[in-house]
Amino acid sequence: MASLLSTPQEAPLDWKPPKPGGRWRGILVLLPAVIFAFGYVLWLIPTLLLFKKWSQRHRTALIRGWGKALLWMFGVRLELGGLENRDAPGAKILATNHVSLLDLMIYSAAWGDGGTVIYKKEFGKIPLIGRCMRLLDFIAVDRGNPEAARKSMADAATGIRERELAVWIAPEGTRSRKGGLQEFKMGAFHLAMQTGAPIVPCIMRGVSEVNPIGSLIVRSGTVRVDYLPPVHPQGWKRSNLREKATELRRLFLRYLPAASGTEGA
């Protein structure tokens, strides 16, 4: 499976991914990878139902296995830096840039103990996938109307705080369509203020090189994820959350290019 290289806390500003491989491996592996991805979910659901205690003990390994196997199939090597920030005790919000569908494999392969994701309640209706997310205790939020959204986010915040979860969230809200870091939405910052949990910036680089925007083909190559020191929300207020979002985005821009038409481009 893809090797995981742990590196010191300081993220290198000048890191450049090695030149990716050609398209043929990605083309040949695409169908087997899709079959494996859904087959793993088919296997995982009865495993989670029938062996609950065992599954809880090995939850991190079960989630990592999906992503690591897929990265290995595509020949993608994953470098991880600053793992002490990811693995620090207590609740935290893992805020990362969102590049492509390959991100899901990377999140999975880099999964830490107590990890979870927040997903729209509607996704729970997807056959197999929705059932699997519920069994893995991922957090559904109802965005159908403002009142329901506020209540579900408040409930999510309580669960995150009490269970000391590490939540993956993309402040951009959706993956970049044309490349570069988009403006940040406010969800991650409201969540940090509600929970008191620090935001751990997660910088992903090399994704667009191995999986060019708009392409289904994944090339072999190297992706790096750096977990930077936590940003604590003490003293944050609703009135200054936009300022905090702008400050965090500027930190990301030290490592990533800005999307066209946004600040820093």
Describe the structure.
There is one protein chain. The chain has one domain (20-114, 147-252). The radius of gyration is 18 Å and the shape is globular. An 8-stranded mixed sheet has the order 1-2-8-7-3-6-4-5, with helices on both faces. It has helices spanning 24-50, 52-57, 59-74, 83-86, 102-109, 129-135, 146-163, 187-195, 207-210, 241-252, and strands at 4-7, 76-81, 92-96, 115-120, 139-141, 166-169, 199-205, 221-227. Strand 4, helix 6 (129-135) and strand 5 (139-141) form a beta-alpha-beta unit. With 265 residues, the protein is α/β, with parallel strands linked by helices.
Name the helicity range.
40-55%
- Number of contiguous helices: 10
Strand order of the largest sheet: 1-2-8-7-3-6-4-5
- Specify the biggest β-sheet: 8 strands, mixed
Strand content: 15-25%
* Cα radius of gyration in angstroms: 18 Å
Shape: globular
Estimate the mean pLDDT confidence: 90
What is the SS-derived class? alpha/beta
Count of beta strands:
8
Distance between the termini: 37 Å
**In total, how many domains does the architecture comprise?**
1
Helix and strand sequence: EHHHEHEHEHEHEHEHEH
Unreliable stretches covering 5 or more consecutive residues: 1-9
